[in-house]
Amino acid sequence: KARVTSASVAEEEYGTVPHSFVFHRGLVGKNVDQLVTDMRRVMEPYTARALKVRKKNVLKDFVTAAGPLGVTHFLIFTKTETNVNLRLARLPKGPTLFFHVTKYSLIKDVVSSLKRHRMHEQQFSHHPLLVLNNFGLDGMHIKLMATMFQNMFPSINVHTVNLNNIKRCVLLTYDPESKEIDFRHYSLKVVPVGMSRGVKKLMQEKLPNMNKLEDISDLLLQGVNLSESEAEQDGDHNITELPQVYSGRGNMRSQQSAVRLTEIGPRMTLQLVKITEGMGDGNVLYHSIHTKTEEELMEILKRKEARLKEKAERKQKQEQNISLKKQKRDENKMLSYILTVLK
């Protein structure tokens, strides 16, 4: 009974969180294709990791498949001769944000630059923690970007969240001068503070090699008098008091521990180009390059209304033609029936 209850609760929670499709359109090359795969890792577990994209697929196919699966966001990568582009779309009625990916680094590039990387499968069983920096500035487009990024990831209740489920962190920083967004993806680790390296080694699952030591005190005192360049730098910026027991030996409740971040990639620098209503085909709400006057906006609305009116008239005419054809067909059937009876 408990298993059935927990399964139903998990299924209900799974259906209430945002889900995403990450894919590309057109020819993008090997590197951008790998970037798509890396972004799927970031969005796990609430994304389609093994999503298959065929050349003949159109955007309507993805929208049709998204409804039954509960998908709420699309991340679409495209490539031109000069730019790599990213579209963030909210289903089913938008809005859609268009970005230039001015710079990017893949997971393999970031990991290869580190002496030690922290990336394992258990980190991707839970969604990452989202941190937004500098998104409190004035401007409709900044608020819209912040709302879009927030809605892409499940919300967290700070009073009930299980800290052991937070293994990754996504940091988005907006630079008001360059108007660029830095995207970073980190692995999160919590370690107790106030211990020498020797004590930390003893608290690991694998015991250190002590055959060259005369006494265990040599191990415990090792690393006590390290210089600042050799020691791991912890301070007020990353030391906190744990409200819960955290995984890892020594991380006890109400004890000070250091939160350390290790970048695992991918890394991107994004620049907002425009925001549109709908799935990329609605009114332009914001454009970073072209600005329109009130007269131009009214002219666009008039043209759109004229197209919609023309489409409605065509549909009405088609329905009338279908009705006339059906009426004529029924009359012909009745006439042929009467002739058959008379014969």
UniProtKB/TrEMBL annotation:
The keyword Coiled coil applies. Its main location: nucleus. Residues 291-328 form a coiled coil. Keywords: Coiled coil. One of its GO terms (biological process) is ribosomal large subunit assembly. GO terms for molecular function: rRNA binding. It is found in: Nucleus, Nucleolus. Residues 18-281 form the Brix domain. GO terms for cellular component: nucleolus; preribosome, large subunit precursor. This is Brix domain-containing protein.
